[in-house]
Design goal:
By secondary structure, this protein is α/β, with parallel strands linked by helices. It contains twelve helices and ten strands. It has three domains: about 110 residues, Cobalt-precorrin-4 Transmethylase, domain 1 (3-Layer(aba) Sandwich); about 110 residues, 2-Layer Sandwich (Methyltransferase, Cobalt-precorrin-4 Transmethylase, Domain 2), CATH 3.30.950; about 50 residues. Bound molecules: S-adenosylmethionine.
């Protein structure tokens, strides 16, 4: 019984190919590739001579049996045009079929735009919602995003350059112009840019800069917004509650809850205010 290796390949920079990916692609008997011409260039570069077969969205059912037949004879690798197969790329049904046919399925991890973008965004990564590509039609697109307006998680999605302005406008409408956003463009490539700012600034940026290339968009969740409650913001809130006649202990309690910060921190800041600091 053969093993199905799910092999990540570079998202731009060929130096990101792992040693294990090269060895695995050399050793398997067949490579199922999303586009054999695109991966042909990669395989040539690394002197990998393993035969390929195409496995893409529109032939995946017919090709599943071809790949399963090859797996019955030996090991097979699945690759996509770039990054990690099955992540907004074809392959999960093949992985499922391989498991169900009793094969081992082994990941050969490596680049993926979603993890690369998250690693440099400077947004919370403890909880993330990955939306893949947003629906193309306006109404399901809006409905999907609307369901995350109050979500604490960082939202990540892939976006085509010709749709990014429209998406940013919709994000402003739903999430407000001040929400923090990161546009991770052409990661690992020559024109890599990691743009950070508010949604309002992003709209301005996309007016002066024609969107080109591959984008991954990351939007701060409500938890990142709350952590914007720095010491100054806390002290301003304490002062305004004081001006409204709220007692010190109630103000501390209330601000600690809003800012999601320990009450002892807020109390220290309140003491500093009382001391005139
Ligand atoms: N499986 C791939 C992965 O693991 O990253 C994603 C495939 S998906 C079909 C391609 C989309 O990923 C692009 O349209 C773009 O939104 C995003 N993407 C791919 N490469 C990228 C890069 N170098 N920089 C930023 N985003 C990228």
């Amino acid at each position: 019984m053969g093993t199905l290796f799910v092999v990540a390949t570079p998202i731009g920079n060929l130096e990101d190919m792992t040693l294990r990916a090269i060895r695995t692609l050399r050793e398997v008997r067949l490579i199922a590739a999303e586009d054999t011409r695109t991966s042909g260039r990669l395989l040539k570069h690394f002197q990998i001579e393993t035969p390929q077969t195409s496995y893409f969205e529109h032939n995946k059912l017919a090709k599943r049996d071809v790949v399963l037949a090859a797996l019955a004879q030996g090991d097979v690798a699945l690759i996509s045009d770039a990054g990690t197969p099955t992540i907004s790329d074809p392959g999960y049904e093949l992985v499922q079929a391989a498991w169900e046919a009793g094969h081992r399925v082994v990941p050969i991890p490596g680049p993926s735009a979603v993890t690369a973008a998250l690693s440099v965004a400077g947004l919370p990564t403890d909880r993330v919602v990955f939306l893949g590509f947003l629906p193309r039609q306006a109404s399901p697109r809006r409905a999907l995003l609307e369901s995350y307006v109050e979500a604490p998680e960082t939202l990540v999605f892939y976006e085509a350059p010709h749709r990014i302005r429209e998406s940013v406008d919709l994000l402003i409408e739903l999430f407000g112009a001040d929400r923090a956003v990161v546009l991770a463009r052409e990661l690992t490539k020559l024109h890599e840019t990691i743009w950070r700012g508010t949604l309002a600034d992003a709209a301005g940026h996309l007016v002066v800069t024609e969107p080109r290339g591959e984008y991954t968009v990351l939007l701060a969740g409500t938890s990142a917004e709350r952590s914007r409650w720095d010491d100054d913001a806390v002290q301003r809130a304490l002062l305004s509650l004081e001006a409204e006649g709220v007692t010190g202990s109630r103000a501390v309690k209330q601000v600690a809850r809003l800012a999601e910060r320990p009450r002892s921190d807020i109390y220290d800041l309140w003491l500093r205010l009382q001391a005139g600091e």
